[in-house]
């Protein structure tokens, strides 16, 4: 009891705490997270590449269609002109009426309108194709500094 009141304690106490983790779970979680981010970025890149491929493919198909439309419109215009010329000759010989001549003139005007529309659509298709393949600026001699 005298030790108790004097504050002199003969016991000795020591402690040792060892934390040893053979696997670094924090690093493993960070690695897994980085792997997920990488997969997500690769997926996004593939989706963008597919969208670009589809845009280029669609614009090239649009060009082909527009060219075919122009050829058809020009052929229609030539045929309408030939019909009108024939109808005018028939009218001059008295074998046709002015109504038929006017009808052929309207057909020619419609075919010319279709040819102009086809040309407009070709110009739009060219612009879309240039945009899709990235040559719109160079096609118009535009430089960005």
At a glance:
This protein is mainly alpha-helical and 145 residues long.
Characterise the protein shown here.
This protein is mostly helical. It has one domain. Helix content is 78%, strand content 0%. It is built from four helices and no strands. The protein has helices at 2-6, 25-92, 98-133, 136-139. The radius of gyration is 42 Å and the shape is rod-shaped. The model has no long low-confidence stretch (mean pLDDT 89).
Radius of gyration: 42 Å
Shape: rod-shaped
Q: Give the amount of beta strand, in percent.
A: under 5%
> H/E order of the elements?
HHHH
- Helix run count: 4
Distance between the amino and carboxyl termini: 93 Å
Biggest sheet details: none
Q: Indicate the mean pLDDT.
A: 89
What is the secondary structure topology, with strand pairs?
Layout (H helix, E strand, L loop, with lengths): L1 H5 L18 H68 L5 H36 L2 H4 L6
Helix pairs in contact: 2-3
Q: Which descriptors would you attach to this protein?
A:
145 residues, mainly alpha
